[in-house]
Structures are given as C-alpha cells and as structure tokens.
Amino acid sequence: MKNIVWLIPLFPLAGFLINGLGRRFITKTVSGIISSLTVLASFIVSCIIFSDVREAAFTPQTIHLFDFISAGSLHIPFDFYIDQLTSLFLLIITGVGFLIHVYSTAYMHEETNEGFARYFAYLNLFVFMMLLLVMGANYVIMFIGWEGVGLCSYLLIGFWFKNNDFNNAAVKAFVVNRIGDLGFIIGLFLMIKTFGSLTFTDVFSKAGEMTMGSGILTAITILLFIGATGKSAQIPLYTWLPDAMAGPTPVSALIHAATMVTAGVYMIARSNMLYVLSPATETIVAVVGVVTAVFAASIALKQNDIKRVLAYSTVSQLGYMFLGLGVGAFTGAVFHVMTHAFFKALLFLCAGSVIHAMGGEQDMRKMGGLKGRMKITYITFLVACLAISGIPPLSGFFSKDEILGAAFGSNVIYWAVGVLGALMTAFYMFRALGMTFHGKFRGTEEQEHHVHESPAPMTVPLIVLALLAFVGGWIGIPALYGGRDNFGNFLAPVFAQSKALATPHELSYNTEWILVIITTSLVILSVIWTWTKFAKYKAREKEATGLEKILENKWYVDEIYAAVIGKPLRAIAGWLNDDAEKSGFDGMVNGVGKLVQWGSRQIRLIQTGRVGFYIFGMVIGMVILLFIAFYF
Amino acid sequence: MPIQNYIWLSIALFCIGVTGVLIRRNAIIVFMCIELMLNAVNLLLVSLSKYHHDASAQIFVFFIMAVAAAEVSVGLAIIVMVYRHTKSVDVNILNRLKN
Fold it and tell me: How confident is the model at residue A434 (pLDDT cuts 50, 70, 90)?
C-alpha cells in the first residue's frame, strides 16, 4: 500500500498541469476526458487503499516522502498519514469529485476551448488540494491544502471573471476565508510553542498528558475552530458561501459536497483528542453549530433562487455536523459528511440540470411544472429531498438521527433546536421541489420551448448519486434497528483515544425510539403541510412583510456586517489615505527637506567672502580649541 | 637666561603676528605677520630643544624654515599677480573672488 499512496494526489496534479499548460492546444473532449480520468484513477487507488484499511490487522501508517521544513528543533516532514478517517474522505472526494467532473463535461460545453480547459484545470487543482488536506500527516500539510482549496474556490467562483458581481463574490469568499485562516495559523504557532511538533501523532500523545480543560488547549482549539468557521461556513463567517453561487453550478456541487466545506469538519474530527480535552471549546462548537443550523435554515425558507436555497441548506447541514462534533459524536458528524456529500452533490447537479434546461434561469418563481419534461432530474431531486429531510430509510435519516441522539444525551435544548432545524429543512426542500417541478410553468414561452432533459453525461451522475443518497446510510444502521453499525466500527480506532477520555451519554433504546418517532413524524407532518402549500404554487404579487421580509433579506446580516465592519474599516482606510499619509508621512518627509533648505539659507549668510572675517573665525576657533585642551 | 624669558618672547611675537593678520589690510603686511608667527614658533622650539637637551626639535625648525621659504615665494608670487590684476594689495578687495 505504501508505494501507491502518493499516486492519489499526483493524478489530479498531472491533470491540472496538462489542462493548465496545454489549454490553448487541446480540444474540449480531450481536456474533459483527461481531467475526469485522472480523478477516476485517484478513485481507483483510493478504493485499493480502502480495502487495505478495512482489514482487521491494519494499523495507521505514515508514508514519508521528503523533509519539508527543518529548523532548529522543529522538523516538519512531508508525510502522508493513512488511517480509516483519511481513507473514507479519499473515497468521498475522489468518488463524488469524479461524478462532478463527468457532469461538468456536458454542463460546460458552451465554453470556449481555452475556458473549458481552464475550468477543468482548476477543478483538478481543487481535488488535488483537498486530497493534500486530508492526507497530510501534520498540520502544515493540512494547512497547504487548506489554503489551496481557498485559492481554488476563489478561482472557480470568479470563473466568469468578466462579470463584476461574480468577481466580488470570489473576493468575498477569499477574504472571509482569510479571516478564518488567520485563526488557524495562529493556532498552529501556538501548537508549535506548546508541543514542539505539528505531527498528528506527536501532538495527540502530548496533549493526552495535559490536564483536561487547560487554558492553552482551549486557546488552541478555539483558534482552530475559528479556521473551521471560515472554511466550513459557520456563524459568523458563513456569508461567503451563499455568494459563492456565482460560480458554475458543478463548482457549487464540488465546494459543497466533496471538497472545501467539509475541511473544517475533517480538521476537528482529526483533532478529536484536542477537542475532547477542552470541554469549553466543545460547548462553543456545539452552540455555534446548532445556532447556524437553525439560522441558515430559516433564511433558506424564503429564498427564491434555487441555488441560494441549496447554499443555505449546506450551511445549515454543516451546522448539524458541528453540533455532532461539539457533543462528541465524531462518528455521527463524519457519517453526515458522507451522506451529505451524496445528497447535496445530487441536489446541486439537479439544480444545474434545471438551470441548464431553463437557459440560465435560477429564479424558482419562474419555473414550475418541469416534472413531466425532466423525469430523471425530477425523480433524483425527489430522492435527494427525502434524504436531506431525514425520511427513513434514506441516508440522511440515519446520519441526522445519530447526531440528534447524541445532542439529546448532551443537552435537551440542542436536540429541540436541532429538530426545529430539521422541520425547516423539510419545509424549504419541498418548497423548492414544489415550486420547481409542480404546478404550472411560469417562465416565458421561449423557455418553455427550450426545456428538455439533460444529456447522458449529466443524468448518469444524477442516477448514481441518487442511488448513493438512497442507500448510503445503510452502511451505518445502528443496533437500534437491528443493524451492526459497520460505519461506526470502521471509524472506531480513530476516535478510540478520545472516547476513553470522555464517554458519550448512552441513551436507552426506549428513549431513542421515542426521539426517532417524534422527529420523524414531525418531519413528515412538515412535508405534508409544505406540500399542501406549494404543490400548486402561484406567484404572488404583494410585497412580503414583517418576518418574511427579514428572512427574504437574510436577516440583513450582510448589511449589518457592511455597517459594523465594512464602513468603519473603509472610514479608517480613507482617513489613513487622505489625512494620515498626506499630512503625516508626506509632511514628515517634505518637512525634512524644507528644514535643510531653510537651515542652509541661514548658514550661507556667514560666508561673506571677507578674508579678515575668515581669519578672525579661525583664530577664535583655535583659541576655543586651546581653551578646551587645557581646561578639560 | 631662564627659559621663561624665551617663552614670553615667543608669546609676544606670536600675538603681534595674530593681531597683525587680523587688523591689517595690506596683503604684504599680513604676509609678514604670518612669517612672524612661524618664527615665534621656531624660537620656542629651539629654546625648548636646548632646555631639554634634545636636538630633534631643531631638525623640525630647519624643516619649517625650508618650507617657509618655499611658501614665501609662492605667496609673494600670488600677491604680485593680485596686484597686477586689481592694482591693489588690499585683502578686502579679494572678496571679488566670490563672484
């Protein structure tokens, strides 16, 4: 196994180089095939590694490639670390990534040859960076990938760079991510200072010797979590993700499902030792997660852009994952990452298919009645809606249930708020389904004429993802339903150390049954209620008022940020530019020049040209020198 | 004769030289006053050389006299040129060099 691990990131990198450097020479077909095949090759290697990891005798392995940084006592090798968690993420990234690549070959066919190759080069680089992130054996390699996905998201969100709004969205994503990255990198420095190493195994074994809840561990974990809020779009740094919809739709699918936003969840799951040892941070993570879950879901209720609904849905689902991490249900959080990758990629690709058919229209108020014309898209979208809403026995049910169960064990309020979020999830997803596929067609005649089912490269990934979204949860059926929880057992070694420190509250089967029945029946009621409202949606003319208006405007968070942070910053920058620089620094520099000129004008006066005066000055000088020589 | 007498004489000669340089305007007089200062120093060197029974100072004196002779010839030549140019040996006229 050791000798093929390095192939996994190498394939997408090669694809990136070929497409990036040869973008002027290769045709669309060639670049599409190359980049899809490289990711497929990575997926195959990941499968081989996964089968190795599944063997009972497997122990986590570090694969040394070369020495990266060596300064004094600090050694940072360029190592890969393969364990159960890594191999799982490898499968998700390359598997879902491959399907998105295939889908993109059809979705982007209207681009020019060069744009097409550039797009696939970025896509491959994105996958490469994400692979680096999950494969690194220390936080520095992780950080390289961490920054790399930030860069790629910037490049892809601003892919249509001729549109200024898209560029602004890209810059916003980059800047907001930088804020989080600052926290992450300070956390790394603090770790170097505390542990003298950034290698996972060293850090965790040294952290295990520290007392629980020590200040330094709390500081490190909070700083790392700030990084995670930026990358994984949690309050207060989530605002970039909805704007990231400016990119091509498959890119949204890639960002939301396979790469990028799951980085924060991966990082905290990887650092589970540190987080278990600092309960204060765990509480913060759980509260931020559950608040984000409800907050973003509430915004999604009133959005009319189909991609924005999905974007806020992602923010909300990520909130659930962080809730899971916060209450110590690391397995549940990772499980939800996986199922979410399936159904969210599916939702975005379906949305892309719809937008494609509608000729670029994204407003759901102008859609409707598409189910007859786009059968495959409709059925797969329906599967994804059921999965994300948590209807048994689809995948989302099992993963969300695991998180909510753990949340109940930790604090009933978490559970109640989480269920509220789940109800909202069912509402906004079925609202989107009803507005898009049911009722009467509300677009223009030209659009109606244009509507068609997408070609095979787009529908096949939809079908595959729909199957995964349907059955993906079955690998982790808990003992409650007579399953064996293969998923939990598979990941158990990763979290064994931390589990020994803090045993999660075990619920009795009776309690769990009651919780599940309450949640599921509420969700089903929510679905039915939504259906009665939106199955025959008609556009209303009247303006929204009150709470609806606040929700439509996303709680005015962007406006608040602009007023509280943006405006003062701009005022300070303006003051520095107009006043501080011009009269301060420029004044200082010019002042020195003026002083010299003025001084020389004064001193010039004593140069009279009279020889007697010079000699007199010389004699006086000598007398003074003699005087000094004798008396001092 | 005690050494003090020589020293006082040197000081007197030197001060006369300095005063002459400062207050006279005739270039030739100024020049002579400079020579006077040089010779005041020479006198001091010679007398102290005798006092300390050390001949090296007298060597200096010979050097100074030789250099002074050369300097006088250059200086007088300059004064002659100045006179030809300006028809005057007044040092204050020399500020015309300024422009």
Answer: confident
Give chain A positions within 8 Å (CB) of B98: 609
- Over the stretch B5-14, which tens digit does the pLDDT of each residue have? 999 999 999 9
Mark whether A506 and A363 lie in a shared domain: yes
Q: Does residue A44 surpass a pLDDT of 90?
A: yes
CATH number at residue B52: 1.10.287.3510
For A622, what's the count of Cα atoms within 13 Å in the CB-facing half-sphere?
Answer: 6
> Range of A565's domain?
561-631
pTM: 0.80
Tokens of A541: 């003319």
Chain-chain contact of A611 with B21 (C-beta, under 8 angstroms): no
Residues ≥6 apart with Cβ < 8 Å to A472 = A338, A339, A342, A387, A395
Indicate the residue among A87, A121, A137 that finishes a domain: A137
CA distances from residue A609 to A360, A372, A606, B97 in whole angstroms, order as listed? 87, 106, 9, 8
Cα–Cα distance measured from residue A528 to residue A542, given in angstroms and rounded to the nearest whole number:
25
The letter for the amino acid at A41 is A
Q: How many CB pairs under 8 A join A and B?
A: 20
Is the CB of B92 less than 8 angstroms away from the CB of A608? Answer: no
Inter-residue contact B43 to B10 (CB < 8 Å): yes
Domain of residue B60 covers 3-98
**């295990």: which residue's tokens?**
A208
Task: Write out pLDDT tens, residues A350-375.
Answer: 998 888 888 878 888 888 778 888 88
